[in-house]
Specification:
It is a single chain. By secondary structure, this protein is α/β, with parallel strands linked by helices. It folds into 3 domains: 181 residues, 3-Layer(bba) Sandwich (FAD/NAD(P)-binding domain), CATH 3.50.50; 108 residues, 2-Layer Sandwich (D-Amino Acid Oxidase, Chain A, domain 2), CATH 3.30.9; 54 residues, no CATH class. It contains 10 helices and 18 strands. Strands 1, 2, 8, 9, 10, 11, 17 and 18 form an 8-stranded mixed beta sheet that branches. It is globular, with a radius of gyration of 21 Å. The N and C termini lie far apart (59 Å).
C-alpha cells in the first residue's frame, strides 16, 4: 500500500458515489467546500436495482435527470399470485424508471462539474476518526477530512467501522433483467406490476425499462429461505413472461427501515450520526419498508446532510445534529407509517389484495404520496376512516382462507 503524505485535508470525504453521495458532493462543492469522493467501481457501472423513482423526485432534481429516464409510469397493475389483475391508473406520473448505471453516472457528472474530486475504482479499506479529523485508507493511499459521509450502500463499510452497534438487518431480494427486443412491454410501457402474494412478507415486481423488464422478488423479513424458488414461481405465474427468457437472477440486499433504525431512543443517540460521520441513503437504511423504494430517499438524505453541513460549517456536532433532526422531521415519520401498512399487507396478503380491489380510491390517494402532493402521515388517517367499516369482516374472511 502506498504511504501517501497527508498533505491535504478535505472538508468532507464521501465514501460511495451512488445517488446519495453524488448529490451531497455536488451540493457541498457548489458552496465552496472541498470534497473527495470514493467509489470502488468505475462509473458508469451496472447495479442490481429495480430502478423505480417515485414522481416526487421532480421536487428534488433539476429537469435534466429526465434525459436518463427509461419509462414514465402512470399506473400499477396489482395481482395476487399472478391472478385477478387490477389496474389502477393516475392522470399524472407516479414514477420514473431508470437503469442505475445511467442514472448514477448522470449524478456523478453533476458532482464533478460542481468541483468534486473523485477517485473511482479505489475502494476504501479502513476509516478512523478522532476529535479532530477523519482518516481514510484505500488500496492507493491515505486521506483525511473534517467529516465523512457514508453513502456506500447496504453493506456500508462506514457503518460497520464507525457505527459498531448499528442494526445489520437487510431484506433479501432477487432480480433479473429481461431483454425484450421487438416484443411489447408487460403489463405495458407505462405500467408496473406488483404481485402482493408472490413472496412471504414481500412482493414480486415487473418494472418496464426502455428495452426490457426488471423482474424481481423481495421479502421484508429478517429470516428468509427458498427465495430462488419464490422467484421461479413468480416468473411462472406472471402471464406476460410466458415464453420469454428470464436470465438467472442476482441477489441483492434491501436495507429497509425498521423501527429499531431511527428515532431518539432513551439513552441512545441517533443511529445516523457518530462523531464526525453521517450515514445517508442505503448505508443509513433509509429505504421505505412498504415497497422498498430507496433512490428517492438516497437523493433527499444527500441533500439534507449537505444542507446541515453548510448551515454549520465550523461545527461538525451542530451540523450532524441538524441532519439527524431533519431526518426526524421529514423522512422518519413517513417510514413509521409505511412500516405499519407493510406489517398488515404482508401478514395478510390476500386480505391486502381484497382491500386494494374494494378501495381503489385509497390507492389513488397513495399515488398522491408518491407524487409528493401529500405525505404518508397525512394519508393514513383518512385511509383508516375509509377502511374501518369493512376490515373486521375481511379479516374474518381472510382467516377462513388461510
Amino acid at each position: 500500500m502506498a504511504d501517501r503524505q497527508l498533505a491535504t485535508t478535505y472538508d468532507v470525504i464521501i465514501v460511495g458515489m451512488g445517488p446519495a453521495g453524488a448529490v451531497a458532493a455536488a451540493a457541498l462543492c457548489r458552496e465552496g467546500l472541498t470534497v473527495l469522493g470514493f467509489d470502488k467501481d468505475a462509473h458508469p457501472r451496472y447495479k442490481v436495482c429495480g430502478g423505480g423513482l417515485s414522481a416526487r423526485i421532480d421536487r428534488l432534481l433539476e429537469p435534466g435527470f429526465k434525459s436518463v429516464v427509461e419509462q414514465t409510469v402512470n399506473g400499477v397493475q396489482f395481482v395476487y399470485r399472478g391472478q385477478d389483475p387490477l389496474l389502477i391508473e393516475s392522470s399524472q406520473p407516479i414514477a420514473y424508471m431508470v437503469m442505475r448505471d445511467r442514472f448514477d453516472h448522470y449524478l456523478v457528472q453533476q458532482a464533478i462539474h460542481a468541483g468534486a474530486e473523485l477517485r473511482t475504482g479505489e475502494g476504501v479499506v479502513e476509516i478512523t476518526q478522532n476529535s479532530d479529523r477523519v482518516g481514510v485508507v484505500t488500496q492507493e493511499g491515505r486521506y483525511q477530512s473534517r467529516m465523512v459521509i457514508g453513502a456506500d450502500g447496504a453493506n456500508s463499510l462506514v457503518a460497520r467501522q464507525l457505527f459498531p452497534n448499528r442494526s445489520l438487518y437487510r431484506a433479501p431480494a432477487l432480480e433479473s433483467e429481461v431483454r425484450l427486443g421487438n416484443s411489447r412491454h408487460y403489463p405495458s410501457a407505462s405500467t408496473i406490476l406488483v404481485d402482493v402474494g408472490a413472496a412471504r412478507q414481500g412482493y414480486g415486481w415487473i418494472f418496464p425499462k426502455e428495452n426490457g423488464l426488471s423482474v424481481g422478488v423481495g421479502e421484508f423479513r429478517r429470516k428468509s429461505s427458498g427465495l430462488r424458488s419464490t422467484f421461479d414461481r413468480f416468473v411462472s405465474d406472471a402471464r406476460g413472461l410466458s415464453g420469454r427468457t428470464v436470465p438467472r437472477p442476482i441477489g441483492h440486499p434491501i436495507p429497509a427501515y425498521s423501527d429499531s433504525e431511527g428515532g431518539h431512543r432513551e439513552g441512545i443517540g441517533s443511529p445516523f450520526i457518530s462523531g464526525r460521520a453521517a450515514l445517508v441513503g442505503d448505508a443509513g437504511h433509509l429505504v421505505d419498508p412498504l415497497f422498498g423504494e430507496g433512490i428517492y430517499y438516497a437523493v433527499r438524505s444527500g441533500q439534507l446532510v449537505a444542507s446541515a453541513i453548510l448551515g454549520n460549517r465550523h461545527d461538525h456536532r451542530g451540523s450532524l445534529a441538524e441532519y439527524a433532526a431533519a431526518l426526524e422531521r421529514e423522512i422518519l415519520p413517513d417510514f413509521r407509517i409505511t412500516a405499519r401498512i407493510a406489517r398488515v399487507i404482508y401478514a395478510f396478503p390476500r386480505l391486502g389484495f381484497r382491500l386494494l380491489r374494494r378501495y381503489q380510491d385509497v390507492v389513488q390517494s397513495y399515488f398522491e404520496v408518491l407524487q409528493g402532493r401529500t405525505t404518508a402521515a397525512q394519508f393514513l388517517p383518512d385511509a383508516k376512516k375509509r377502511l374501518k367499516a369493512s376490515v373486521n369482516d375481511l379479516l374474518l374472511e381472510a382467516l377462513h382462507l388461510r
